[in-house]
Amino acid sequence: MPEYRCMKSFSSPRGSRSESSAPRLDPGGLYRVIFEQARDSILVLELPPEGVPVIRDANPAALILHGYAREDLVGKPVTVLGASLNRGRLARHVGSSAFEVLQKRSDGAPLITEVTARNIEFGSVTYGILIERDVTPRRRQEDEGRRLSGRIMLAREAEKKRLAASLHDAIGAIQVGMASELLLIEEELRGGDKRRAFARIGHARKLLKKVTSAVKGACVESWPPALAVSGLDAVLRELLSGFSRRSKIAVRADISLPEAEHASESPLAIVLYRLAQEALSNAEKHSGAKKLDFSVTCANCWMTLSVRDDGRGFDMAKARNKKTSLGLKIMAEAADSAGGYFSVYSKPAGGTLIKAELPLRPEPAL
After folding, report:
1. CA dist., res. 105 & res. 202, Å (int)
2. Where among 134, 160, 188 does a domain terminate?
């Protein structure tokens, strides 16, 4: 390595220590201190013309990051870190590059680092200086995000499939039922029995009304057309009424919305409706509750949805990685897309509280 001369010190003013007694700073020592104290991992590799690069030095941050002692690394091929860096990325040419590397710690745990590499020539030897930053948590979050997005897409496709099946069954019932009734009406009329024919017509009307109601119900569940006409308040109360009728769960509702939100078809109203719909669906399917408190309140430019049931609850730690929590993750994504917050509180036999907070208007730009 190069030899460094001491820096020339400035002359001392009268009365201070003489120039010969003033401390002198060795640049080589300074660089070593920086190397040892750096928070980022720094590895110094020797890049031979052929073969695998060899580790010549590693700072404490590198030892901590990889989980090795200095003697376990210095003088060893770089492959000891669980990644091959001898092809392409650490070419022997002088220059710098940046890339990510998948490695393994000494305990076998996966490690992903963001590497900035620079090659320098010293005499006839080329050295590679690698500065690493641990990006494993970030990559895990990105991977989890991709997996969640895929699961959400599948869930949405399943919802579309369910809606299509409902519409298909309802329309099929209309077709079969009406065709049968019309055939019977035709036979009664040909036989001259007008009384029975009129009775068949009345039965056909009832059948058509019933099946049409089922089709409308499926469509309303997918998209509430009353939102633009009656407003969010009325749509939520209609949603609660249907929920209570189906589930036999007693509902106590407190819906307090600003006047501007009563007849709103804004994205915020749609997001809140979807959150309420999913929360009630979860309570109906999984809670086993007898009572449910539902509230929508507005304060300090925030709209808060709260759904609390007295059901069986669940262990949040165990449910976090289960597919049954997909609905909760979809709700969290929906709240986040509106610039809000989503939270869940539950414990076995202690009921469940679902809470979403959404901003009534965008925050001003700074």
Report:
1. 78
2. 134
Q: CA angle 145-151-155, nearest 5°?
A: 140
Is the overall model pTM greater than 0.70, yes or no?
Answer: no
What are the E-state strand segments in the chain? 41-47, 54-58, 95-104, 110-122, 125-134, 250-255, 291-299, 302-309, 341-346, 352-359
Q: Indicate if 165 and 243 belong to the same structural domain.
A: no
Report the C-alpha dihedral over residues 32, 34, 39, 44, rounded to 10 degrees. Answer: -40
Q: Has residue 87 been placed in a domain?
A: yes
Residues of the domain holding 200: 136-222
Q: What is the pLDDT of residues 305-336, one digit of tens each?
A: 999 999 999 888 776 655 556 678 888 888 88
Phi, psi for 194 (deg, rounded to 5): -70, -35
**What's the token pair of residue 341?**
């917050």
**Residues 28 and 151 placed together within one structural domain of the fold:** no
108 and 69 in contact (C-beta within 8 Å)?
A: no
pLDDT tens string 82-122: 875 544 455 545 556 788 888 889 998 989 999 988 888 88
Which residue, 76, 100, 134, sits at the end of a domain? Answer: 134
Q: Are 270 and 324 part of one and the same domain? A: yes
